[in-house]
Amino acid sequence: MRDTEELYREYSTQVYKFIFSFCHNHLLAEEITQETFYRAIKSIHRYDGSCKVYVWLCQIAKHVWYQELDKRRKSSSDVLEDPSFTDSNSPESQFILAQNKMDLFKQLHLLDPNTKEVLYLRLTGEFSFREIGEILGRDETWARVTFYRGKQKLMKGRSS
Prior knowledge:
By secondary structure, this protein is mainly α. The chain has helices spanning 4-23, 26-42, 53-74, 91-110, 113-123, 129-135, 140-159. It has two domains: 1-78, RNA polymerase sigma factor, region 2, helix turn helix motif (Rna Polymerase Sigma Factor, Chain: A, Orthogonal Bundle), CATH 1.10.1740; 90-160, Winged helix-like DNA-binding domain superfamily/Winged helix DNA-binding domain (Arc Repressor Mutant, subunit A, Orthogonal Bundle).
């Protein structure tokens, strides 16, 4: 395997974008990216080459993210807090935006894990379908179909 500095230089931006698509927080994404590479370097001897290095790093990053979510849930912090919503003009608009956001995330939470992940990566990470397929170990067509079906499920949920 490559030396660790080269590994970081080549993949840190991609891993950061991947994590940012989940957390929407620059500082947290940087922290999780650092932790991801720390863990990757510690366990580099277990990398068997059965997948691309980028996919392996994203698997580690996703695991670190889920651990962060668990930690935050236990301390009852709001992970989905978005500072852009606090700058709205009136308390009423803040409330409506917060409710809409909460409803969307509740609906996303009910989707199967693959669909949920594809939607997050596409909508918040702005990854291409090809990149999403690569991250999840599938092809571009699978990512497109999964995204479309997930979007349809969300739209049905909103209309009912």
